[in-house]
Amino acid sequence: MVDKYEDPFVKISHMIGGDEYLKVSRSLLKSEDATDEEIASSTGLRINMVRKVLYDLFGKGLITGIRVKDERKGWFVYRWRSRRDEVENFIENQKKKVLERIQQRLDYENSSEFYHCGNHDCNRVTFEDALDLFFKCPSCGKVLNLKNNDKIKKHFNKKVDHLKKDIRI
To answer: Which molecular function terms from Gene Ontology are attached (predicted)?
Structure first.
């Protein structure tokens, strides 16, 4: 379980992947430049799970890996380190992605007319699809009528406005 006073790096790691990510991120904070074997040993996780978590966090830019030669074994290993300074940038980028998706959905809602039969189990369809279906619901066969989507548009507009205020642009 994540403590409210936990380091933001640990919190975001937990949000990304759950308990395994929580254990790995805590381990990374305790010992900088740890190998995947050392992290597996300190967390009790299997080595392949640790590597999966490390590669994911690395791909998201939240950790960095340095390749060094292990003098005892003679092969190369990675030493991993958290990039706590990148947490804010990661969060901002995720907010921007969410904003972009919501804006696309709002644009779709604004540019389309939707038709629905009134049955809660059935999906609404666009005008083009309703026309192809001769204004008969493809699920239940009832007549499709114009569906007002002002509530949905208002909801997405609020979300877009909120995110734009929240994001540092």
So the answer is: DNA binding; translation initiation factor activity
